[in-house]
Amino acid sequence: MNYSTTYIGNDPDGGMPAFVSVEYVTADGTTVNGLDKFVTAPTPIDTMSTLYTDGTATGNRRCRH
Questions:
Q1: Could you give the maximum distance between any two Cα atoms of the chain, in Å?
Q2: How many CB atoms lie within 10 A of CB 42?
Q3: Local confidence pLDDT in tens for the 65 residues of the chain
Q4: How far apart are CA 42 and CA 39, in angstroms?
Q5: Is the dihedral of CA 47, 53, 55, 60 positive or negative?
Q6: Euclidean distance between CA atoms 17 and 50, whole angstroms
Q7: Which of 9, 19, 33, 56 could form a disulfide with 23 if both were Cys (CB 3.0 to 4.6 A apart)?
Q8: How far apart are CA 23 and CA 12, in angstroms?
């Protein structure tokens, strides 16, 4: 799954997208998140770089159920 996250805060030190969580709901109503099964995605999102106001990080997260 490819996704983007944008920092909309105004802290001059910015923020890291490390705490962004992604979940989805399957057709049968099961919620799946990145902690259910940990795998490495191709071109993963950079969660450790600092984003500043309106800065965006884009990458992939692989989710398996």
A1: 43
A2: 8
A3: 788 999 999 999 999 988 887 777 889 998 877 666 665 667 888 889 999 999 999 998 765 54
A4: 10
A5: positive
A6: 8
A7: 33
A8: 29
